[in-house]
Amino acid sequence: MSSDRVSRGVPDEFYPSVAAVVVTYNRKDYLADLLPSLLAQTRPLQAVYVVDNASTDGTGEFLDEEYGSHPLIQRINLAENTGGSGGFNAGVLAAYRAGHDWFWLMDDDVLALPDGLEGLMPFTDQAGCIHGRRIDFHGGPFFWQPRINESLGIPLPYLRDPFADGRDSFETNSGVFEGMLVSRDVVEAIGPPDPRFFITWDDAVYALLASRVTRVLYVDHFTLRRQREQRQASLAVRHLNDGSDLFRFHVMRNRGYMAHYLRHLGTYHSVGFGVGTALTFLKEEVRLVYVEHTVKGTGTLLRGWREARRIARQPWAPVERVH
Question: 16 with 44: CB under 8 angstroms?
């Protein structure tokens, strides 16, 4: 066993070292199902970092009682709710500084399938950013749009099953913090997730950045099951779940950060991006009408759009790399 493996306490059969990073906020009941599923993986994890975003529902007490002395559970208690983006920033930084080689990122409202991680590990010699498939709360495959059109700055509907021809993986440039597996080398190259997003677009942008330094793969292996039921409407090329006003505000507001990142990457086109923003607004209006049967929330979308324009005009720099 090499000296670096000894220093991390990682047996040869579990090398490289993989840490799960779970961000939670006021969902202790979901967390109570997720954590056992992570600890029971057929390819064991070396640590599970639970980032508590200042929950007020007894999450801290639950973790104290059930996992206070568990050797694999590492808790990070944040003083305020920083959103999923801030939580993943804190969790990835902690896991990186602890010396782990891979980071399996996920929200708290999923369940890890027993061989979820095991099915991803064979691809770690092909890519530094890997996504498995997910089962939706109703038991069928979860629809995911796996590629960003950089001229528009949005993911476009994928009209067919990318695995229909029997391939075991599909290269993309987008991602989700619902099972994204990221290598240490990628974090070193592009830094941790950007906490400024709060929620939404942060994961897509992170994978877009990763695509500049590694392959980003979507793998034909089911890794997670979504636990939280949502109202849903199926359209011709995709389905839409319900959303909150918090989501609606940030899905528009964070277009400002998306614009900055596309400029940083040299692929920003003002006209195309404007069209993409208008299409994002239209999609959210469709979500309101067809899923939630209301137009309340339109004002929230417009407020987010105005804030996006303000952010896009401000000075900006990407997140600093890990030192």
Answer: no
What the block records as the tokens of 259 is: 């614009």
Alpha-carbon distance of 307 to 292, in angstroms, equals 24
What the chain holds in terms of domains, given with CATH numbers, is 3-229 (3.90.550.10), 233-313 (no CATH)
Residue whose structure tokens are 């949502």: 230
Condensed to tens digits (0 to 9), the pLDDT of residues 261-275 reads: 999 999 999 999 999
**CB within 8 A of 113, min separation 6: which ones?**
37, 135, 222, 223, 224, 225
pLDDT in tens, 78-105: 999 999 999 999 999 999 999 999 999 9
Q: Are 306 and 256 a contacting pair, CB within 8 Å?
A: no
* Tokens linked to 282: 């239209």
Tokens, residue 10? 């990682």
pTM value is 0.92
